[in-house]
Structures are given as structure tokens and as C-alpha cells.
Amino acid sequence: MENDMFDFTKLRRPNAAEQREQEQRRRADAIADDHTRRLLRSRDALRVTLTDHPDARYTIAGDRAVHFYGDRPNGREVRGVWYAPDHMSRDEFDTIVAGYAIGATLDLRGYWKPFNGNSGTRFTFVAQFVKAADRAEPAERKSPQAEIDAFGA
Description:
Blueprint: H1 16-41, E1 44-50, E2 55-58, E3 64-71, E4 77-83, H2 90-98, E5 105-117, E6 120-132, H3 144-150
Parallel strand pairs: 4-6
Antiparallel strand pairs: 1-3, 1-5, 2-3, 3-4, 5-6
């Protein structure tokens, strides 16, 4: 018995070039969405001088994170964490982590997050953007595009 309702000959699969184009478009959209989300979460700025080597860690969910330990310009100790975007490769992540050393001064943009523990509440700075402090200061917050340009993304 022939099925007259569906004409499966009209269905086609994308060729290799079309698949590559779709993958590139999907990746570009993911990068843009991630960057916009990070801009919206960047409420505070923090300058930190590293006093210990940064730790590259992985969460149970498989996210990659870099934990920073250092001092603020006023001498207070601070902890920070930066989560790598999903679209970043392992090699890119390892290169970034290898570039941070004790004594490096970093500018972080992000927000403060409280963590409750046995010794009370501790705040960690969740960085959305990290850059070396010897670069130019970020532009004033005018638009998301100005923020993107300021961080060289």
C-alpha cells in the first residue's frame, strides 16, 4: 500500500558546506548570546593583584572555571572566579590560565556573590570579563557595543 499523504522524496539532507555554514552560524549566535548575558551581569568592577597561582577547575556539570586569589588596591584579600564560555575550546582555556601568574594585576568586571559556610558569609567576585590591567581602561557604560569594544571581544 502506497502512502499518498507524505512525499519523502522532497525531504533532503543538507550537504557538507550547508552543515558547516549552519554550525558557524550557530556558534556565532552562541558567542553573541553569551557575551550579551555577561554584559548584563557586569554590575561591578574590581582590580586585583594575584597573590597565588590561579586554579583551573571543573564543575560537576563540566563547566570550566578559573579561581583567582589576590589583593585589592586597598590591601583587602579577595577571591574571584571566572567561568569559561561553552564555546571556548580546551586549548584556548589552557592558554588563558597559563597567562596568569603571581603578581599579575587584572581588571575584573562582574558581580559579588555571597556563599554561606560554617565560618559565616563569604563573598566571591564572579567575573564576567577578565583582562590585564596594563591595557586601557574600559569605556564608560554607554551601550553593549561600547562594552564589547572596550574588552576587545
